[in-house]
Every structure is written in structure tokens, then in C-alpha cells.
Amino acid sequence: MTTVTTVGAPGVPSPATMPATRRRIRIRLPRSAKVITGITLLGIFVFLAIFGSALSPYDPNFIATATNGTPQPPSAAHLLGTTNLQQDVLSQLLTGTRPTMLVAFLAGAAATVLAILIGVAAGYFGGLVDDLLSLLINVSLVLPALPLLIVLTGFLGASSSANDPLIALIISVTGWAWGARVLRVQVLSLRNRDFVESARLIGERPWRIIGFEIMPSLIPIIASSFLFTVIYAIGTYASIAYLGLINASHWSWGTMLFWAQNLHAEQSGWWWWFVPPGLAIALLGMALALLNFGIDEFINPRLRAAGLSRKAARGAGLPRRFRLGLTPVTAHARAGTVPADSAQDHATPDTEISL
Predict the structure, then answer these.
(1) CA dist 172 to 7, 124, 152, Å?
(2) What is the largest CA-CA distance in the chain?
(3) pLDDT value of position 328
(4) DSSP 20
């Protein structure tokens, strides 16, 4: 019987004795103050949208006229004061959070889906399809949004004007064109890249090329477009409610401003009636804008490098001043050399959009 022994190099363990190593998956938590602030504020509003009605101290529709129709300032019984009918402003604010958030995010999602379908199709297929869809995009851009919304909501009845999903779809009709235009331009720059041409040469279908080759490169742009569309939907929904185009008994932040304006709360100095809903709209818009700025810093090396402090820049090996036209890119690597095949994982491409 012959015995075969394998002798390795001195000091190097044999493969049989080497411990199995597992690749560590590290989840990078957001470190930007903008992102953390935006996530915190958005989380608060999402919590209020879910549990706001249960946390309301009073029924927002409760009417009491014990003070002859004069709104009462904030007190221990009513933290944000009352309206002229002695309705609790805090209860109306908490109850109105859910419809406002629901309409804003549904409208943002619907408008983003329309923008993806139209913008990506126009940029990828080109030719007559691009001409027709570009015409549709340009017409939608030049149409005045507010008059169109007034006309569309004018056909709604009293019950339909309190239907939040229907109102969200109407708002999305006027909010998809800008995102579609940006996506079209980006797809035009991607459809002739080498990896897309290679997918065509091996016989991949168009829907698979769009879904697996082009769409991953568009995710940051789609996320940014979605956030801006949600901000647009918040302001639009509050505007049409403020104008009285929504059922006045359906509580939202815009409805609160409608009643405050009708009863001249601004001229009478009843600030506790109109400041809370206006401040809530501003804070929610600011939270979404901060998240969008965080996405921009994540995908754009110029913004990410500009956001570094001097101490962090020195630690990353960056110069104090950057040369004009040079885009500094930092990569967090472990001690030692980085393998050549993993260099692509550390590099972040610069995404540019030209209109």
C-alpha cells in the first residue's frame, strides 16, 4: 500500500487545516447629519400618521360654543388652543396627518411609476416612440398644474373629494413629467454603453435589458425623483384643500388652513390655528429634502468630498484644496493592498444628468 503525503511550504497551513473564513457583510449606517435629521423627522410623522387618531385627546369634530365663538389660546386643557367652535386644534392636527401623508406618498409613487414607464421607454427605444413620448412630456410640462387640478377636482362630488387615493391619482397626473424627462436623458446616455450593447449581442430581450442592465443605474435618480414628487404632492394637496376643493369636513393640514383663512385667523391674531399645520407642512418637506440631499451626497463624489471636514479629509488622504476639474473619490479599505478584482467595488461612478 502506497501512502501519499502532501507537504506544504514551511509556516503555511495546509488547506485541510485552514479555518473556513466567512465574508463579513457590513451595513453602513448613515453618518450624514442631514440624513439622520431627515430620517428622524420622517419617522416622527410616520408614527403620527399611524397612531395620530388614537393619540388625539378630543374628537376633532366636537363642537362647543361656551365662549361665544372666540378661539381660545393654548392652555393645559388644549395644548394648541381651539377654533371658533371650540374644536381642539391638536386633535385636528393629529387626525389630519394620515390623509396628508397618504395622499403625498401615493401621489409620489404613482407619478414615479408614470415617469419610469414613459421616460425609460422614450430613452431606450428612440425613433418614433421617443418623438411621441417626448411630445407628451413637453406638453405635460407646459400645462399649468394648479388650473388643471382645479378643473379635475371640480368633477368630484362631495364623497369623492374625500377619497384620498383618488385625489392622489389626480395630483400624480401633474407631477410625473419632470422625472420622466430626467430619466429619458439618463437612459439616452446608457443605451449605447458597452454592457448594454453586449446584452443586445447575446440576444437579451428589451425588457430584460431595461430591467437588469439599465434600471440598477437609475435607482438613485428614481429615489431622488420620488422624494421631490412627494414634496410637490404635499404642497399641492395642501393648496387645493386650502382653496376649498376638498371636502371641508375631511380633516387634513390644508383643511385646517382653509377654516383658519375663512374665519380671518391671520387678521385676528389667532396664530395657534394656522401656525401648527403650516409648520407641519414645512417640517415634513424639510425632512424629505434632507433625505434627498443625503442621496445626492451618496451618489455624487464631488458632493461627498465637499462634505468632508478638514480632519476627515486629512484622514482620507485628500489634499486641503482640490484642483479644478479633478473629482476626488475616497474609498474605505482595510489595511494592506486591495485586490485588483475588488477595485471596482470601491469605485463609485459619477452620475451626471444633462438636460
Answers:
(1) 70, 23, 12
(2) 110
(3) 53
(4) P
The Cα 41–Cα 280 span in angstroms is 10
Please check whether residue 328 lies inside any domain of the structure.
no
Is residue 354 included in any domain, yes or no?
no
Q: From CA 194, how far away is CA 191, in angstroms rounded?
A: 9
- What's the CATH number where 146 sits? 1.10.3720.10
pLDDT digits 0-9 by tens, 104-123:
999 999 999 999 999 999 99
Residue with cell 385625489: 167
For residue 188, tell me if it sits in a domain: yes
In the structure, how many helices (H) and strands (E) does the chain have? 15, 0
User: What is the distance of C-alpha 69 from the center of its chain?
Assistant: 41
Whether the full predicted model's pTM is greater than 0.85, yes or no, is no
314 belongs to a structural domain = no
Determine the pLDDT at residue 230. Answer: 95
Looking at the DSSP assignment, which residues form a beta bridge with residue 88? 82
Confirm if 292 and 228 have CB atoms less than 8 A apart: yes
Residue range of the domain that includes 224: 33-60+81-307
How many domains does the structure of the chain reveal? 1
